[in-house]
Amino acid sequence: MCIPKELKFLAVDASQCMGCRNCELACSSRKAAQYQAEGILGNIRIVPNIFVGQNGLTKTPAYCRHCSAAFCKDLCPAHAISQENGVIILDKDKCLGCGICEQVCPYGVITLGSFKIGDKTKTIAHKCDLCFDQQSVGKEPACYAACPTKALALV
Amino acid sequence: MNDCYNCSDQSLIEKAESEEIDLVWQRYEKMKPLCGFGEQGICCRICMKGPCRINPFGRKRSVGICGASADTIVARNLVRMIASGTSAHSLHGKEVAKTLMHVARGETAIYSVKDAIKLRNIAHKLNIETDGNDLIPLAGVVAANSLMDYSRMDDEEICNWLKYTIPDARLEKLKKLGITTSNIDGSISDIMARTHVGTDADAVNILLAGLRCALADYSGMQVATNLSDVLFGTPQPVVSQASLGVLRKDAVNIAIHGHNPLLSEIIVDVAYKMQAEAVAAGATYGINIVGVCCTGNEVLLRHGIPLATNYLSQELAIITGALDAMIVDVQCIMPSLAKVSACYHTELITTMPDAKIAGVTHIELGSGDSLKKAELIIRKAIDAYKNRDDDRLSIPAEKNKVIAGFSAEAIIDLLGSINSEDPLSPLIENIVNGKIRGIVLFAGCNNVKVKQDHNFVAIAKKLMAQNILILATGCGAGAFAKNSLMNSEATENYAGNTLKEVLTFLGFEAGLNAPLPPVLHMGSCVDNVRSIDLAVAIANRLGVDLNQLPLVASAPELMSEKAIAIGSWVVTLGIPLHVGLTPPVTGSSLVTNVLTSELKNIVDGYFMVEENPLEAADKIINIIEEKRLALNLCSSLDSLSKAEVL
Ligand code: SF4
Ligand code: SF4
Ligand code: SF4
Ligand code: SF4
């Protein structure tokens, strides 16, 4: 993978989060477009990489922190998760779909998704890639762009 | 944390969980996060250029695509809620008025005038000539004068049910503000018209129209309550029971749920006649009708029918496994009942053309063959009873004694047994001498955001300990009935000494041989006007306006648009209103400020938001003491204010 240097990372100010889930929707829309390009749209459940939760009156999104010592990376038996220029990135081709990363992520932001190829089912893990494809052409990450209050910030 | 204050409700929630049946509480958790734009009232869906949302944190004041500000959007959304609430109540009133008209014209064999005295009193109140008018023609005139309130063309006139039911001083004030209404339906369409894209953009002007619509709501509710009394009788004190323990293992249990007594009265009548069929089917007790929500309150007050539950726990009636049929009419019927009843043998039956649920048996009542249809419904319940699975039965043991039926007339009659010349004097004397500090009306719904019934119970217990008399309607009344605050024991246990003394005296005078309950059940949510009738009688007798009385209203668990409409007319009539949840207005500081403070300068009443029940109680007590002080009655603030002067 070719992760450009100096990607921006996400941060959040929970006091400004409205719980509107626009970020979830935007992340899902980007995925849908990717799945379409891969020809698996309709064959896989679309789950975003960012999840808005509510505790009491406080609402806030959970998203990948691109941990400097990432459990998901360290414990992946297939070495499918690597760190490039500070971004924790998952290589779908190497992923075995074992779900260890899903279990060890302290933020609960890795999900598993399955789709059919012929009569076989393939399961792979999904995680935030900071929308590096967009960022590398000067665009904003989808979730950040969609956040109406900019509770999400780029740092 | 428990979801319900009531323990037997809580045990049924656990049963549903073990059976993997989702109830309102799980659906709420799954719905989280709730969108903050909707919560704050700053999401506008009024036109197709949008939807637009206003960023409440934006450094620049953002506006909708059309340029509408947060103030405009919040005000428009709020008054549309008022309009919806007004439609619900006033349509109910219109149906009742039309039925009375059918009676007058001899077009119905099902309904009749049951309370001739009430009819004559109404005619007198509405300034209708009664002398020489026979009962049935008089019913026609009263019905016509009520229906006129829905159809008047002359904007300068004022609805009969508004102008003849409030103190003169209040009427003058409303006239000066230009917010009286001449036509209930007209006020609703005014709201819809002025909130159309590109019409009224002045938040204050929109809010004033909202108050006018709220007064239309008030008028429609007056029609609903008063004419229902004519058709079905004015409630008188009655002893019954409440909570889900009123369901019986040995009976065909039928719940009637919704709001409109036109339908429940038929079911009740027909069920009495079909007891034998139920017994023949093996239910030794026969048919056991129980009430849910405000239909439940209507039949509790008029027939002493036990109240099974109020709004939020309606699904639990089915989870007992003992409910054979649930018959619903309009408003506050959770569509989820379809799914929950499908998990049991319970027959769910809708009965109104404007309130169907997809996939649910619909048997329409209200036309000429209603009696036959009602028989069909009861028979379905008996058939369902035969399929009841005793292994899934879990009827809670708890049921609590309830003394209900305190219409304004019943209260005045009761007081009249002490002083027939001046029936209100015993109540007024005790307010003046401070044995009763004041009166608080509890109204409104349950809301899943609050532990069910908890706010009602917590606030009321604190108020009654401070010798404040409590009136209750709607699902608030349901909360008190279920949780044993509507009986003499509650007075013994929780009322302050002087309140206890007065309630005990009144109870014995009234021949109850026990104290009156500390919370007087005045009826369903449309029956909120009963408490206003009582307050107006007191105000008129004292020669003051409603805002001067030591009277506060509280809707501590409000949820519906109807509650917003009621709350709005309560404040417009000059009465401070506590709300236990924040209405969707905080996206506009202007609107929030108008509702919680500016209104006080205009109509005397205002919204007081306090989510903590014990603090709410303190604030309510404080308002009451302020009002007492202003009336020169002994007040706990007396010494305080004197100290300040010194
Ligand atoms: S997926 Fe989880 S563990 Fe891995 S980098 Fe992101 S937050 Fe850290
Ligand atoms: S940065 Fe991109 S991939 Fe990551 S959560 Fe946001 S939208 Fe999803
Ligand atoms: S889009 Fe922004 S405001 Fe909305 S839920 Fe996501 S972080 Fe919160
Ligand atoms: S009316 Fe104005 S604010 Fe509302 S959706 Fe249309 S453009 Fe947006």
Briefly, what is this?
Chain A is of the alpha+beta class and 155 residues long. Chain A has two domains: 8-63 and 132-155, 2-Layer Sandwich (Alpha-Beta Plaits); 68-127, Alpha-Beta Plaits.
Q: What does this molecule look like?
A:
The complex is a heterodimer of chains A (155) and B (646). Chain A has 155 residues and is an alpha+beta fold. Chain A has 2 domains: 8-63 and 132-155, Alpha-Beta Plaits; 68-127, Alpha-Beta Plaits. In chain A, 23% of the residues lie in helices and 25% in strands. Chain A has 5 helices and 8 strands, in the order E-H-E-E-H-E-E-H-E-E-H-H-E. Chain A has helices spanning 22-38, 71-75, 100-104, 132-135, 142-146; strands at residues 10-12, 51-55, 58-62, 81-84, 87-90, 111-117, 120-126, 152-154. The longest helix of chain A is centred in the N-terminal third of the chain and has 17 residues, at 22-38. Chain A is globular. The mean pLDDT of chain A is 94. With 646 residues, chain B is an alpha/beta fold. Chain B has 3 domains: 70-232, Substrate Binding Domain Of Dnak, Chain:A, Domain 2 (Up-down Bundle), CATH 1.20.1270; 244-392, Rossmann fold (3-Layer(aba) Sandwich); 402-645, 3-Layer(aba) Sandwich (Rossmann fold). Chain B has 27 helices and 16 strands. A 6-stranded parallel β-sheet of chain B has the order 6-5-4-7-8-9. Chain B has a 6-stranded parallel β-sheet with strand order 13-12-11-14-15-16, with helices on both faces. In chain B, helix 25 links the parallel strand 15 (577-579) and strand 16. Chain B starts with 6 loop residues before the first helix and ends with a helix. The interface between A and B is medium-sized, with 13 and 12 residues. Residues 17-23, 52, 61, 146-147, 149, 151-152 of chain A line the site of one iron/sulfur cluster.
CATH class of the largest domain in chain A: Alpha Beta
Order of helices and strands of chain A: EHEEHEEHEEHHE
Total beta strands of chain B = 16
What's the architecture of the largest domain in chain A in CATH terms? Answer: 2-Layer Sandwich
Gross geometry of chain B:
globular
- Number of E-type strands of chain A: 8
Helix-and-strand structural type of chain A: alpha+beta
Q: Summarize the largest interface: chains and residue counts.
A: A-B, 13 and 12 residues
Bound molecules: iron/sulfur cluster
Give the percentage of residues in beta strands of chain A: 15-25%
The share of residues in extended strands of chain B comes to: 5-15%
